[in-house]
Specification:
Shape: globular
CATH class: Alpha Beta
Number of strands: 11
Radius of gyration: 22 Å
Strand order of the largest sheet: 9-8-7-10-6-1-4-5-11
Order of helices and strands: HEEEHEHEHEHEEEEHEH
Structural class: alpha/beta
CATH architecture: 3-Layer(aba) Sandwich
Length: 263
């Protein structure tokens, strides 16, 4: 009897490709500062990392491959040449090859989804995995837009993932608790925090990653629809949190709230 007959998490026919999207963002441990002119967040000299949700997506793809369920993992990033650093990290974690869609302009979710869709048409992956959102813009839109453009099913906010015979069984985190759905491959999956814990990158793996393939494709080669639909006029830091007030009883609480004009 084959192991795949005993273990439902092992598909009998391995997938050919899994495409994982990695976004370069300000490291979550770095204190966010706004440019003096209010034009955006200060990035000069700041530590940049893979978006944490995307790192979880890559870790899940690697675990799928370690179970013998996929032949190749491709990581892709959209941005400047600086994104090669995050792609190399993805290769060091275990991805087989990387693709940089080179552009100097920030991309809105719809444009990013169109670019990824054009790459999907080239690579024909069986599964696309990306984080449910990025920690810089927090839009939570790209995965859903990609699924719509690709006309394929989607499983979002996934905290548990099982692949078997061309079907993805996903446990989703929703407001009411957990929801289990099944979608047929090819499909789009967006990952939540509780799906896994990404592995640490070891020095030998970093050295091996330098020999792996990293292709650079100009954005214009995949799409010409790059016009921005939204304009950011000004970015402001949140106001300083005011010191709290200690009250002794309910009547004092009501009086304090009234004095502050809150009731």
């Amino acid at each position: 009897m084959l192991k795949s007959d005993l273990d439902p998490t092992i598909t009998k026919i391995p997938l050919q490709k899994v495409l994982v999207c990695l976004k370069r963002v300000l490291d979550y441990n770095v204190r966010v500062r706004v440019n003096p002119d209010g034009s955006g967040v200060m990035l000069d000299g700041a530590k940049m990392s893979i978006n944490p949700f995307d790192e979880i997506a890559l870790e899940e793809a690697l675990r799928i491959k370690e179970r013998g369920q996929v032949n190749e993992i491709i990581v892709v990033s959209l941005g400047t040449s600086d994104c090669q650093q995050q792609l190399r990290t993805g290769l060091a974690m275990g991805a087989d090859r990387a693709i940089l869609i080179n552009t100097a302009h920030p991309l809105e979710p719809l444009t990013a989804a169109r670019v990824i869709k054009a790459l999907v048409d080239r690579e024909s992956p069986d599964l696309v995995i990306l984080g449910k959102q990025s920690i810089d813009d927090d839009n939570n839109q790209t995965g859903q837009m990609l699924a719509a453009l690709w006309d394929r099913p989607q499983a979002t906010f996934v905290s548990e993932l099982v692949i078997n015979d061309g079907v993805v069984t996903a446990t989703r985190e929703v407001d009411a608790g957990l929801e289990v759905i099944e979608v047929e491959l090819p499909a789009v999956v967006t990952t939540d925090l509780r799906l896994n814990e990404p592995r640490y990158v070891k020095l030998p793996d970093i050295m091996k990653a330098k020999r792996k393939t990293l292709d650079v494709i100009p954005l214009e080669e995949l799409t010409t629809k790059t016009q921005q639909q939204f304009t950011i006029h000004k970015v402001e830091a949140p106001s300083t949190r005011q010191q709290g007030t200690i009250v002794n009883d309910v009547s004092e609480l009501v009086r304090t709230l009234r004095d502050k004009g809150l009731i």
